[in-house]
Amino acid sequence: MHHPAAFGRFEWAGVYFDGRSAARHEVTIVVEREGLRITGARIGQVAWPFADIRQVDSGVADDPIRLERGLTDPEILVVADRGFLPAVQRAAPESLARAADPARRLRLSRRLIPITIGAVVLLIAGYLWGIPWLADRAARRVPVEWENSMGRAMVDRLPEFGAVCADPERVQALRQIVDRLIADGRGGRYTYEVRVIDSKLVNALAAPGGQIVVFQGLIAQAESPEELAGVLGHEFQHVRLQHGTKAILREVPMRLIASAVSSGGSFSGPVTGVATTLAGLRYSRGDEIEADREGMRMLRAARVAPDGMLAFFERMVAESGDTPSALSYVSSHPRDADRRAALEALARDATAAGEGAPLPLLTAAEWATLKRPCTHPAPIP
Amino acid sequence: MPAASPQRPTFHGDAGTLFGLHVKHFLLTVITFGFYGFWGRSNVRQYLYAQTSLGGDRFTYSGTGGELFRGWIKAVGLFILGGAVAVILSTAVSEILGTVVLYLGAMFVLFPIALLGSRNYRLSRTTWRGIRFSFRGNVSRFLGIFIPGLLLSIVTLGLYFPVFHADIRRYLVNRSYFGNSPFSFNGEGRALFGPFLLNLVLFPFTLGLYSFWYGAWRDRYYWEHTAFGPLSFRSTITGGEVLRLTIENILLLIVTLGFGFAWVQARTIKFRCEHLLLVGQSTLDDVVQDAQGASTTGEGLSEMFELDLVGADFFGL
Fold first, then answer.
1. How far apart are CA A277 and CA A285, in angstroms?
2. Could you say which DSSP state residue A162 is in?
3. pLDDT value at position A316?
4. CA–CA separation, B117 and B30 (whole Å)
5. pLDDT top residue among A16 and B31
6. DSSP labels, B92-155
7. Ramachandran region of residue A284, left (φ > 0), alpha (ψ -120 to 50) or beta?
């Protein structure tokens, strides 16, 4: 291999392919006024007028320069020397003067990596915080009727778990607790409807719009009306604070984006998967804490003894070892030391504030009505 | 210039640049709701091929995102058609028949067509020294090998599989061309049988790790029996090295939460290049341009099956 300097200013060493055979020709290239003169042992002389030459740019820094002539099965000239392209550009007219010079190009990684890392961080931040922020704003503008029909659609699927306990005494007793909690506008703009479902599941669910479902199993586990009120207060707050509505507004666009991105293949799949899961966890935890806090406030304002809520949650955590069902109260209401401490503080606070002594919720007879097994099950209307 | 003997392919790319490409690809894919994916994939391939050289000369890949997109549309059409047939059979005849036809159709017909089409497309878009590669397979003849082979593999509970696998390899290699000259494969499935059985026997005792050694052995066997005219191939892959590469790659992906993807890709291609040798004396001057067109449908189907074999089919094999 000759060093280009050995040829003087206008001669360069390169490799030539004729586009017809796989033979490799080591050639000498002379840059002339009208074009390139290519000389090789087995090809003699080939003249390439500048007008016929095009550059095939790999877009990668420090790659060899590749010039071609012809459209299908072109002749190819590859020159590794960095000085070659500037020499051609000095001699060539318009067509080649603007050719990209790999030698003058920054490595793509150096140019692009800082910008793209920044952009990815921004996109992920937009995804993790921007969409939830928009969802929160949008949730406030969703009409109550929409939330109602959304909630209906969710509750309508519950008969799979059991029939509704519709006996009038039970409904009446439950209504007393509900009315006490939501009196004086404490429930916000929603109308609450609580149904008891004849099922051994120990859980309660709040659908958007005020549809609350309590499984009879949970009432069976509660030891006082105050404990049940604690659970209801927590669920009412999910409705009032629109946690379900916000989750839907948040999840739908996030899932759409995630699926669009993962269809792009490569590493975008795992990244968005992790991001979506993290976001979901973070928000459901935040929602539970908020519902705890506001639920406790609701109890205090309604003059319901706050230790019921605490006692019930504590007992459920203690017993959760025996009921590892996915629909158990603890698995859908994750609990940890922080949250328990926060609840205890709120309860203590209430006692200390002396906002008026707690008033009893139900008579013993009414509570017994709620606790008795479901005798008149009826399907959800 | 006679080819120096032996020589290996070289990968010149660096993972940083590849990462930049992937990130750009990712951002544009998000903004375009996934549509840029086809173009991004093409760009990445273009980069990988252009950064791979043999005997000092780079490969080129000329496939475009538009072609991949059209292939994808056709594949979706084919799937809708298949689904419609299954639904009609389910309602008109029986549900079981519809499901069976759908699954068997995918396994016995769509999969081999995708395999063939993907190879056809990629080879026809690859050049080296200005000469195009091509694949001159025939769908019905390939199905004639694939369907009985797969059936026999199922009937013999997998014992026939090595023979089936080698038959497919033979078909794919023998119909791959560089310019006007075919590659050739003279391996025999029977030769794989012993090591294959050993792998089956050792599988439970080695927690499947012996498969790495079997895979490497098969790779070496396949390459040793692959030739291009007077040139033949050798692979120096060992099971231990493949296992190490795999573990390192998995760790890299976990530690970087997937962001190390470009490094994994670059390392894997480098590894493949370093372990492949081309042996023999030839100027390749006799190889002349002679290639045919390719349909992009197979490529689209291969995407749906996620058969992305990046780096596996340089050199048309």
1. 12
2. -
3. 75
4. 28
5. A16
6. HT-HHHHHHHHHHHIIIIIHHHHHHHHHHHHHHTEEETTEEEEE---HHHHHHHHHHHHHHHHH
7. alpha
Task: Closest CB to A274: pick one of B29, B257, B308.
Answer: B257
pLDDT of residue A270 exceeding 70 = no
What amino acid is encoded at A50 in this protein?
F
pLDDT at B148 over 70: yes
Residue with the bigger pLDDT between B290 and B153: it is B153
Q: Residues near A9 by Cβ (< 8 Å), separated by ≥ 6?
A: A87
How far is A260 from A265, CA to CA, in rounded Å? 10
pLDDT tens digit string along A206-226? 888 888 888 888 898 888 999
Distances (CA, A) of A89 to A12, A13, A52, A139: 14, 17, 14, 61
For residues A88 and A77, what is the distance between their CA atoms, to the nearest angstrom?
A: 13
Q: What is the pLDDT at residue B316? A: 31
Residue whose token pair is 């948040």: A250
Size of interface A-B (CB pairs under 8 A): 143
Among A26, A64, A268, beta carbon nearest to B29: A268
Are A314 and A340 in contact, with CB atoms under 8 Å apart?
Answer: yes
| Contact between residue B314 and residue B125 where contact means Cβ atoms under 8 Å apart | no
Interface contact B57-A24, CB threshold 8 A: yes
